[in-house]
Amino acid sequence: MFTGIIQAVGHIAHLVETNGGDARVQVAANGLDLTEVKLGDSIACNGVCLTVVEKTDDRFSVDVSAETFSCTIGFAPGERVNLEMAMRLSDRLGGHLVSGHVDGVGHVLHFAPVAASPAGGEDGSWRLDIRAPETLARFLAPKGSVAVNGVSLTVNKVSGADISINLIPHTLEQTQLCDLQAGARVNLEADMLARYADRLLNYVHEQDKD
């Protein structure tokens, strides 16, 4: 389990394909403290929960399946990735509960500075508009939470499967999201509370029909 508060931005250092499209991926931690990381621990890479199978002082390796490659992005050699170690029960929940199980890949429609006033100028924030897969639209709500490449963010507006998010300067400085541009693809994970609420409502509806 994760919080969506990014601890470091690493990069994909090496990728070696194995059988059937699976691969062992080596990640340069770039400032993430791996001192207490043990083999078998989980680290989220761009929002994807992966298991550490090898480690050095500043790098760790994970095995990524062909299935994961088919439904996520962010593992090309040289690509920067948001990193977060699994939370402990004693940790503050600064973002929201993130499972590290990506629900789908969205497309960036717009990414640009926010004007500070109608007269012009900028306030340092950027607006990020994303088109999510239609299957995720039901889980997206204004002022609700969503994880974008593993970053816990608040949804400002929703129109169908399109969402609009405001990114403050700190978020841009501390995450890989500053690399985005229109047309880019991003990993999305819906708020698990929304998913459970949806399941509960559907279950009640199914029982009423019986």
Verbal overview:
It is a single chain. The chain is mainly β and 210 residues long. The chain has helices spanning 66-71, 169-174, 192-209; strands at 8-17, 23-28, 42-45, 48-55, 59-64, 80-85, 104-115, 122-131, 145-148, 151-159, 162-167, 185-190. It has a six-stranded antiparallel barrel with strand order 1-2-5-4-3-6. It has three helices and twelve strands, in the order E-E-E-E-E-H-E-E-E-E-E-E-H-E-H. It starts with 7 loop residues before the first strand and ends with a helix. 14% of the residues lie in helices and 41% in strands.
Note the main attributes of this structure.
2 domains; 6-stranded antiparallel barrel; single chain; Elongation Factor Tu (Ef-tu), domain 3; 6-stranded antiparallel beta barrel; mainly beta
What's a quick, concise take on this entry?
The chain is mainly beta and 210 residues long.
Write the H/E string, N to C.
EEEEEHEEEEEEHEH
State the major sheet: 6 strands, antiparallel, barrel
Rg (C-alpha, Å) = 18 Å
* Proportion of residues in helical segments: 10-25%
> Low-confidence parts lasting 5 or more residues at pLDDT below 50?
none
Mean pLDDT across all residues, rounded?
92
For the record, the CATH class of the largest domain is: Mainly Beta
Tell me the fraction of residues in β-strands, as a range: 35-45%
Task: Determine the CATH topology of the largest domain.
Answer: Elongation Factor Tu (Ef-tu), domain 3
Number of strands: 12
Put simply, the count of helices is 3
Based on secondary structure, the structural category is mainly beta
Q: Order of strands across the biggest sheet? A: 1-2-5-4-3-6
